[in-house]
What we know:
Elements: E1 2-3, E2 6-7, H1 13-18, E3 23-31, H2 35-43, E4 47-55, E5 58-66, H3 72-77, E6 83-90, H4 94-104
Amino acid sequence: MIAKGQIVASGSPRDLKRLVANRTVVEIEAYGVPDAALARMRQMEGVESVTVETKEQAQVVSVQAREGRQLTSSLMELLTEVRVERIGTREPTLEDAYVALVTSA
Length: 105
């Protein structure tokens, strides 16, 4: 994997995913998430990264946190004024490993 022209990691996809195996990803699909809420998410204890992807009219907010962190209720408190369609947790993917490596580079 390359970030800013520098090699930040190499190995098989399985090896790269192991770099973030100790994390959980909380995904929130919502409409109109304010920048201030995203900034507060990034400052929460245990949060490693927060990314936002626009999907049609919705935003998909992915929050990577250290394994075992129960952030769902805290994240929802930041979104009381936002229409949330879906929230769930999942294991990190290869893309999550890339995001983690790029943001730490």
